[in-house]
Amino acid sequence: MTGFKRFGFFLLCTAFALLFSSAVQAQEMTYEEYKADLAKYEARTIEAKKAQPECTKATEDLAKQISDLDGQIASLKGEIYELVGSDEGGINSYIGELDKTQGQMMGLLNLSEEGLFDRRDEIDALEALLKELKGDKRAALPDAQSKIKSIEQLLDRLKSKMPRKQIRQYTVAKGDCLWNIAKKPDIYSDAYMWPRIYVENRSLIKDPDLIYPQWVLNVPFGVDLNQHLVLRGQYLSSIAGVVYKDVTKWHKLYQANKAQILEPNLIFPAQVLDVPAN
């Protein structure tokens, strides 16, 4: 072996020895750290064992508090059920009815004005149902109050979207008369409302007893804002009770409609009265 090779071999051995020495030192440091950590864990374990009885007691105390609270909640529910005259099943049923009503109104809001007008009876029925639901004792429950408020807002939106008046056309068929047309289910379902068709078509109908096949009549539905359509059995005081919530204000209606009311006690179905502001 030449001198140069011997020198290279010497350097390689030296480097290997240094690396081996470093590894041994590193291993000894890790082991020392391990022992230190183990001592810490053992100390913590001892502390945890000492604290275990206290933790167990705290857990038992908490469980008792939860049990007491459950009892108080059950007692409070019982008092609420007694106040509203129902039970959990009855309350859930009532809330479900509110949800159903709310869903129906949301569905109606998606209709066009014409479609909404065609289902105005359904809206009236929902309004009547809401009034009935509000009169229930269960309406005092917080969840119910929140839903009722939402339903009332939906109803206001429906009413604002509802067209006040629409004109449909009807082609007179052989044998028709205003009386029979008015009582058709898709017209007014009330023969006594025939004068409304007559008044709307005065330019065409000269004699209400004489109409002819193929005539195209305008049939009005609904009334404009600040108007009221007189229905069979209504009189000025009952109408005032509807529009003003005060039957004694019938004279306001009479004064505003003197041109078509001959006597305050004599009004007729199908008349459209102007309703002055309260």
Question: Mind explaining what this structure looks like?
Answer:
This protein is mainly alpha-helical and 278 residues long. It folds into three domains: 22-84; 85-161; 166-274, Membrane-bound Lytic Murein Transglycosylase D, Chain A, CATH 3.10.350.10. Helix content is 62%, strand content 7%. It has nine helices and four strands. The strands form two sheets. The protein has a two-stranded antiparallel ribbon. The longest helix is centred in the first third of the chain and has 82 residues, at 3-84. It is elongated. Residues 3-27 have low confidence and may be disordered.
CATH superfamily of the largest domain: LysM domain
Counting helices, strands and paired strands, the structural category is mainly alpha
**Gross geometry:** elongated
- Order of helices and strands, N to C? HHHHHEHHEEHHE
Largest sheet: number of strands, sense, barrel closure: 2 strands, antiparallel
CATH topology of the largest domain: Membrane-bound Lytic Murein Transglycosylase D, Chain A
Q: What is the domain tally?
A: 3
Q: Please give the number of β-strands.
A: 4
Q: Key terms for this structure?
A:
Membrane-bound Lytic Murein Transglycosylase D, Chain A; two-stranded antiparallel sheet; 4 strands; disordered N terminus
